[in-house]
Amino acid sequence: MSAELDAETVAFAHRMFDLARAGATEELAGQVDAGLPVNLTNDKGDSLLILAAYHAHPDTVAALLARGADHARTNDRGQTALAAAVFRRDAEAVRALLAAGADPAHGNPSAVETARFFDLPEMLALLTAAPTD
């Protein structure tokens, strides 16, 4: 019986990651509001926030941030949601992450390094205009 439950739980988690990838903001936010851990990560260390940022869903990024998603969390390769948003050239998600306190120099590669490597001057400008502490 517990094996069935485990398979059901795993399937549910996979569905939540798919919601983040698809930008199903309302449904995913509802699940988080109902108790889904906002910082749930998959087997590669990708959080819901990283997946939403990588798949260019700024509304989902904003909803997860509003619910306490950890913008500093890195996946198993050292990547952050901010670097993912920069890579996808998603200015709206980049702005939301910066407003939440995401550090452009955090991660490996960092968001700044990502912008430089892929020659994304508009993203680099957003990152370097961010206030520093």
From TrEMBL:
One of its GO terms (biological process) is protein K6-linked ubiquitination. SUPFAM superfamilies: Ankyrin repeat (SSF48403). One of its GO terms (molecular function) is ubiquitin-protein transferase activity. Keywords: ANK repeat, Repeat. InterPro entries: Ankyrin_rpt, Ankyrin_rpt-contain_sf. ANK repeats lie at residues 44-76, 77-109. PANTHER family: ANKYRIN REPEAT DOMAIN-CONTAINING PROTEIN 39-RELATED (PTHR24171), BRCA1-ASSOCIATED RING DOMAIN PROTEIN 1 (PTHR24171:SF8). This is Ankyrin repeat domain-containing protein. The lineage of its organism: Bacteria, Bacillati, Actinomycetota, Actinomycetes, Micromonosporales.
